[in-house]
Write a structure and sequence with these properties.
It comes from Streptomyces decoyicus. With about 425 residues, the chain is an alpha+beta fold. The chain is about 25% helix and about 30% strand. The chain folds into four domains: about 110 residues, Rossmann fold; about 70 residues, Dna Ligase, domain 1, CATH 3.30.1490; about 120 residues, ATP-grasp fold, B domain (D-amino Acid Aminotransferase, Chain A, domain 1, 2-Layer Sandwich); about 70 residues, no CATH class. The radius of gyration is 20 Å and the shape is globular.
Length: about 425
């Protein structure tokens, strides 16, 4: 079978991606370390060719591919399920003559590009680089209106990493200091955005584009603690304010048309403030992360592998697209819930106890012996996900126990609200 290289996969999707690609006639090759995962996820990856590397280190990824030609020899394509990696995927594809998602997907990985294309659907935004911040050339006062202050975040980064809030009245020095305090490697060329802070619930719109035609699948609503997403309800269209659904669809339609996107999934995130939605992350070229693939499967009576097969091949037109899953009409599926739980204060996780006989799907994200960040700092705080029909998850989460170096701990989560 032809090889498809996967750069970027989360724990839940890693359980199903090998079967999804093999059913479509391809053999997956992962730029990932199975030992960084746990249980069923690690077992799934160990059945594939895996090449451990730090995918957050661009130079390390490029060095791995240069030093080991067997990875790209006879490979057909390279893709992934992390939208911020699509620019690197595009670069690798050009270097080794591989197929990859279309150019619009890599371009739309930038929050700055998205805000420039659809300003009427985005928070007030300015774009700058690390060098601009260091030179005190970024004045938050130019971001208006911003009655609740500002959000500073890398233009190409997911999971809340590097994001911080600045208060109304912040100046250029505050921007410089905030960039330095993110802990990201110093990079004068790194693109950043400063946006008006939108206070309100977080929704996402799942769907895909095929030959320029947009298919809207479902809305979902997230629960958050600080910068950490800790739950997701799907479908959640009935929770949106009147008229917000149409505005969300209009934003995605405008983005697709203005960018020229013709193929691929999307997971567009909106904050709803003052009764109207603002698109804050486009997440073009991929399905929603965490356990959304399992939620869609449960809600629509599909298989996760069936969905991922469509996701991965739709983004690679040369591969020949797998059949479109038979999604129900938007909002018409069963109510599903997923908790992306963590532990207060973070720490070293020795194991996770989930009672036998439950009806929910459990994925341990951090391996035994791994460390998680404190809940609230970003999605690196996830210990695991518990996913199922809404009533089942609400009941079974109470019985999950996280064993840590400091003894047993209860998981931390909040319901979407």
């Amino acid at each position: 079978m032809k090889k498809i290289i996967i750069l970027g996969v989360n724990a839940t999707s890693a359980k199903y991606t090998p079967q999804a690609l093999r059913s479509a006639g391809f053999e997956p090759v992962f730029l990932a370390d199975p030992d960084a995962f746990s249980g069923q996820v690690a077992a799934s990856l160990r059945g594939c060719a895996c090449f451990p590397t730090d995918i957050e280190d661009r130079a390390a990824v490029l060095r791995l591919l240069a030093d080991d030609p067997s990875i790209t020899d006879e490979a057909f394509a390279i893709t992934g399920l992390f939208d911020e990696k699509f620019p690197l995927i595009e670069e690798i594809a050009a270097t080794y003559d591989l197929h990859c998602p279309e150019p619009a997907v890599a371009r739309l990985a930038s929050k700055a590009e998205v805000a420039a294309l659809i300003p009427e659907f985005s928070p007030a935004t300015i774009r700058f680089t690390g060098a601009d911040a260091a030179l005190l050339a970024v004045d938050p006062a130019t971001v208006a209106p911003a009655p609740d202050g500002y959000i500073l975040k890398p233009a190409e980064q997911a999971g809340g990493r590097g994001a911080t809030r600045l208060a109304q009245g912040a100046g250029p020095g505050d921007v410089r200091d905030a960039v330095a305090a993110t802990g990201l490697p110093e990079d004068a060329a790194r693109p950043w955005v400063l946006q008006a802070d939108i206070r309100g619930p977080l929704f996402s719109l799942e769907g895909y584009v095929t030959d320029g035609r947009i298919v809207f699948i479902d809305f979902s609503q997230r629960g958050r603690i600080g910068w950490t997403e800790v739950s997701n309800l799907l479908p959640a269209d009935r929770r949106l304010p009147r008229g917000a659904e149409d505005m969300c669809r209009a934003a995605v339609t405008a983005l697709v048309e203005r960018s020229g996107l013709s193929q691929g999934y999307f997971h567009c995130e909106f904050l709803v403030g003052g009764g109207r939605p603002f698109l804050i992350d486009a997440n073009i070229g991929r399905l929603g992360g965490a356990a959304i693939v399992e939620q869609l499967a449960l809600s629509h009576d599909l298989e996760p592998g069936e969905i991922l097969s469509h996701v991965l091949t739709l983004g690679l037109p040369a591969a020949g697209t797998s059949p479109e899953p038979a999604y129900r009409p938007a909002g018409g599926g069963k109510s599903t819930l997923s908790y992306y739980y963590g532990i207060e204060g973070g720490g070293l996780v020795t194991s996770v106890s989930v009672p036998d006989g439950g009806r929910c799907l459990h994925t341990q994200v951090v391996p035994d012996g791994g460390h998680v960040d404190p809940v609230g700092t970003g999605d690196d705080a996830w210990v695991g996900t518990l996913t199922g029909l809404t009533a089942d998850v609400a009941r079974e989460i109470e019985n999950v126990v996280v064993q840590t170096a400091d003894g047993p701990r209860r998981p931390v989560w909040v319901a979407p609200s």
